[in-house]
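Pilot study result, target chain (205 residues):
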Amino acid sequence: MNLSKQLYMMIFIMLIGISGVFFIGFTKMSQVYEETNFANVNSLPSIDLLNQMMQKGASLRFDIWEHISAEDMQNMKKEEEAIQKVKQSIDKDFHEYEKLLINNEDTVLLKKNKEALTKAYGILENVMKLSLENKKQEATKMLNANRPSLVAFTQALDKHMTFNQELAQQKAKEAVSAKDNANTMMIFLSLAVFIACMVGGVYDS
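Predicted structure:
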């Protein structure tokens, strides 16, 4: 092989190597971006929605106590309207969260959130009914007796938030691993191209 063909061969090998490095860099860096950005587009919005639901759950408990404390129908109706408004807001949050579901475990946790909330709603409805009948002591007794069931909604949300936090941490670790793998692959490919060029030069000489 003459010098001209040898140069063409080396250039061809180098182009293949450069293309390989570019391809690896592009695909791996895209993966790194998606995994590092996961927290921004999924984990943080998910945690924020769950936290809002938790705060609204606390607001419901406060409103039901205000309903029991009310001494006239007008104030009780006012609290009923406030409770209904909070319930509608929580239902909206659930609907928004469904758009962020990432896997089966996430879906199962959301289902448990809804089940805990449905049970809490039932308790609050019964308490409110007693309060409307002016059976304030019975309403208070029922509310206190079912406190664990009301707290269960908060606990379910807290567990769900922990899941999202751990998932974000997992994605961050995967991003670091993908970046390291990409660097390693590009180094080995560059060395392979260099060795191929050297071998080709020695062989032709």
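One observation from the pilot: The helical segments are 3-36, 38-69, 73-98, 104-132, 136-145, 147-204. A full batch analysis is planned for the follow-on phase.
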